[in-house]
Amino acid sequence: MTGDQRRMSIDGENVQLPISPKALAVHDPPKFNQGGQINSSVFAGDRDTMQNGAAEAVICNSKKLQDAMQEIGLKIKHHEDNIKFLKAQKNILDDSILDTQVALGRYQSASEPGSENKESSNRRNEEEIIERILKHDKSAAGIYCQLKTHHGPQVTHLPLLKDVIGIVALLGKVDDDNLSRLLSDYLGLETMLAVVCKKPDGIKALETYDKEGFINKSSGLYALGASIGRALDARFLVICLGNLRSYEGAFIADDPQRRLALMKPRLPNGETPPGFLGFAVNMINIDSANLYCATSTGHGLRETLFYKLFSRLQVYKTRTEMLQALTVITHGAISLDGGIIKSNGVFALGNSEVEVKFPKSSGRSNLPENYFDTESRLKELKWKRDRFLEDLHREQTLLDHAKFNFEIKKQEFVKFLAHSSSFATPQKFPAVGERSTPIS
Fold first, then answer.
1. In angstroms, rounded to a whole number, what is the distance separating the alpha carbons of residues 194 and 188?
2. pLDDT of 263-305, one tens digit each?
3. Residue 72: which of 365, 427, 351, 413 has the closest Cα?
4. Residue 381: inside a domain, yes or no?
5. Position 309 in a domain
């Protein structure tokens, strides 16, 4: 007989029983009472132990679910409080914006005798600018303006000029004549007379070259100038909107001019520098035709052309205030009393005669001194309201998400209570020796 096998005799026959090499589990023998029956108190103790363990598990899981629901409930309360606060702040800003708009409207109506006079004055002012451009008879801008003066909108149907939008000086208007002169002085005459086109193909049409690389003056804008008695004989700038990197930020909400929501300069104490009036790129008024889709990609002139020309050029009330803000001037600055900072460390001194400037968009020469401060405040109020609206939207999204999670946990808790109710109801166990179900 080997270690893996044992033999026993059953009815006189030897029967070989296989023994597993694994260790056998040894159980305590059942306990019997004096009557030879199994002691039922043993089973009762086992039942009590099982029920106590199940009850503890139910209590533990229930507490976990309740704690999770309580935590989500606190988040819901937090988001609701934030929304209440933001709405209150937004309402205050709405009232301030309305009051400021009323004040600006009062200033404008006091300085403008009538809409008809205003339009007539603006038209004369623009005609005066065109006359100054025409004096540069050998320039590309002069040739374009003469063609437009004689042929009007039909100029855009010429294959050579179909991609040309216009001249920089005529693509924007400025409310204040002094500010117009300063912005034009900052850009310089060459840039003010630059031709603006939409796509690179427009540049190729304006100037062609022969095999040796010399300019072919029998084609392009040179030939067109010669045909009207204006020989093009000078360098000229062409700005292609399709090659510019457009502004990628947000716009001021509810602004018909789609001004850029640029962050204001801040001193170390967090305050805006004294005398800061705004950014030059937002002080240009643009015709509605070029406001939204001057390019094939849907960008307007403000976020392409004028953002390229002015970037974040800051405008201050006085030269003294501008110089005091040097630490926060990153892309140049100008002041209404003639100060110009081209870039960090580059100052423009002295006086210059501005020949070509932006036309005026409205008669506002008699505006009070605090008008630009009020206008700047209105822009700031609108910007703040936009930020509050963004925060409101974000908090509402977080609140909706928290409420959704709370409902999920609530359903889990209800299902858990229903499932665990059986542990709370005492169960009747059959007596030892009895069958739980009759045997038929």
1. 10
2. 888 888 888 888 898 899 999 988 877 777 677 777 889 999 9
3. 413
4. no
5. yes
